[in-house]
């Protein structure tokens, strides 16, 4: 017969409540007691019953990742998902992926309906949902716990989750391009509703200013976070009378599009044009030449955000906004600026 929680409690010499607290990883359980319960459960080959667990704890033991559907195939989202799943597995929680159309004017109601239907214990929000003040206020009013990833600091509602100094990272990338001798450095910006667009564009301008390079609006094009956005933006930039010698794309997927269009035109990377990205997704290491980019630890950010959310679910006073480090990954896609005579 399948072992029951009563059997574990009897074998460990503790109450069923204590066994439940151990398996739910609740605080204030002595280490000696926890080890005794875990040993008894292992000896009995005990497996918690998810339905009974939910009823006993008045929880669903489910958290939901809410993200914009058009970004569903991006490496960024996939890395966050993997990190979230790792945290959930460790804490015996289930995870649900909830892609929603942010462009839908009624996206706040769509989130509410998802909560009503699936009853998650909490949400993880990525931009643009993480930046939506109306949505965050509504979740606060409903008493729904949530964690954010890379939310705009100015909103003041991102109390739990993870954040990275994208502005400083972008400025350092431009400084690297300047060190290579580049002066005409272009930027393909991210989507307008994404907080990362503002930060990375601001960092781009910071880097130019610190190098004494005048900002040229012609060298900044609207784009997004997809391969096709990189291709389209590069076409605009390379069609300029004086094209850039370096292009900083808003993310790695867009940077891959930059490289594709450059190759289509017979240009060499980095000899004719240098390319820089942001995120350090697996694609940045798999393409050739490998991409110089900013390492944003997306998988770790997903894991940490989930951990902070789960901590807050167990204890409303717990959970924090964790700042994660970035790193410039210098690879083969960036090189010295070509001599002016060579480009004529």
Into how many domains do the coordinates divide?
Answer: 3
The CATH superfamily title of the largest domain: Response regulator
Largest beta sheet, briefly? 6 strands, parallel
Look at the structure and give the CATH class of the largest domain: Alpha Beta
CATH level-two architecture of the largest domain: 3-Layer(aba) Sandwich
**Percent range for helical residues?**
40-55%
In one word, what is the shape?
elongated
Mean pLDDT: 89
CATH overall fold name of the largest domain: Rossmann fold
Low-confidence stretches: 340-344
Structural class: alpha/beta
Note the beta-strand portion.
5-15%
Measure the end-to-end span. Answer: 82 Å
Number of DSSP strands? 12
Strand order of the largest sheet: 2-1-3-4-5-11
String of helices and strands:
HHHHEHEHEHEEHEHEHEHEHEHEEH
Radius of gyration: 24 Å
Number of helices: 14
GO molecular function: DNA-binding transcription factor activity; transcription cis-regulatory region binding
Organism: Lysobacter capsici AZ78
Keywords: DNA-binding, Transcription, Transcription regulation
Protein name: Transcriptional regulator, LacI family
Question: What do you see in this structure?
Answer:
One of its GO terms (molecular function) is transcription cis-regulatory region binding. With 344 residues, the chain is of the alpha/beta class. It folds into three domains: 5-50, lambda repressor-like DNA-binding domains (434 Repressor (Amino-terminal Domain)); 62-164 and 298-326, Rossmann fold (3-Layer(aba) Sandwich); 166-296 and 329-343, Rossmann fold (3-Layer(aba) Sandwich). It is built from 14 helices and twelve strands. It has helices spanning 5-12, 16-23, 31-44, 50-57, 75-90, 107-118, 133-142, 166-179, 195-210, 227-238, 252-264, 282-286, 298-314, 340-343, and strands at 62-68, 94-100, 122-125, 145-149, 161-163, 185-188, 220-221, 246-249, 274-276, 293-295, 321-323, 327-329. The strands form three sheets. Strands 2-1-3-4-5-11 form a six-stranded parallel β-sheet, with helices on both faces. A four-stranded parallel β-sheet has the order 7-6-8-9, with helices on both faces. Strands 10-12 form a two-stranded antiparallel sheet. Strand 6, helix 9 and strand 7 (220-221) form a beta-alpha-beta unit. Helix 8 (166-179) runs parallel beside helix 9. The chain is elongated, with a radius of gyration of 24 Å. The model is unreliable at 340-344 (pLDDT under 50).
């Amino acid at each position: 017969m399948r072992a029951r929680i009563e059997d574990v409690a009897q074998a460990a010499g503790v109450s069923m409540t204590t066994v439940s607290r151990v398996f739910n990883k609740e605080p204030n359980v002595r280490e000696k007691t926890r080890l005794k319960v875990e040993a008894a459960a292992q000896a009995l080959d005990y497996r918690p019953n998810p339905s009974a667990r939910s009823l006993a704890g008045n929880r669903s033991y489910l958290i939901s990742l809410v993200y914009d559907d058009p970004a569903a195939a991006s490496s960024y989202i996939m890395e966050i998902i993997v990190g979230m799943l790792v945290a959930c597995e460790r804490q015996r929680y289930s995870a649900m992926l909830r892609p929603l159309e942010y462009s839908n004017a009624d996206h706040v109601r769509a989130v509410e309906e998802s909560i009503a239907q699936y009853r998650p214990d909490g949400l993880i929000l990525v931009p643009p949902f993480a930046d939506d003040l109306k949505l965050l206020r509504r979740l606060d009013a409903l008493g729904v716990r949530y964690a954010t990833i890379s939310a705009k600091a100015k909103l003041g509602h991102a109390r739990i989750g993870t954040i990275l100094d994208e502005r400083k990272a972008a400025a350092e990338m431009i400084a690297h391009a300047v060190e290579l001798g580049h002066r005409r450095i272009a930027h393909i910006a991210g989507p307008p509703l994404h907080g990362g667009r503002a930060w990375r564009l601001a960092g781009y301008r910071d880097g130019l200013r610190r190098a004494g390079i005048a900002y040229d609006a012609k060298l900044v094009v609207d784009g997004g976070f997809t391969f096709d956005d990189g291709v389209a933006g590069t076409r605009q930039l390379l069609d300029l009378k004086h094209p850039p010698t370096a292009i900083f794309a808003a993310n790695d997927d867009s940077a891959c599009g930059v490289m594709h269009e450059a190759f289509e035109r017979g240009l060499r990377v980095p000899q004719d044009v240098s390319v820089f990205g942001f995120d350090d997704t697996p694609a940045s290491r798999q393409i050739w030449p490998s991409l110089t980019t900013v390492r944003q630890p997306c998988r770790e950010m997903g894991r940490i955000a989930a951990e902070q959310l789960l901590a807050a679910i167990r204890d409303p006073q717990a959970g924090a906004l964790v700042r994660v480090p970035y790193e410039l990954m210098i690879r083969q896609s960036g090189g010295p600026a070509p001599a002016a005579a060579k480009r004529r």
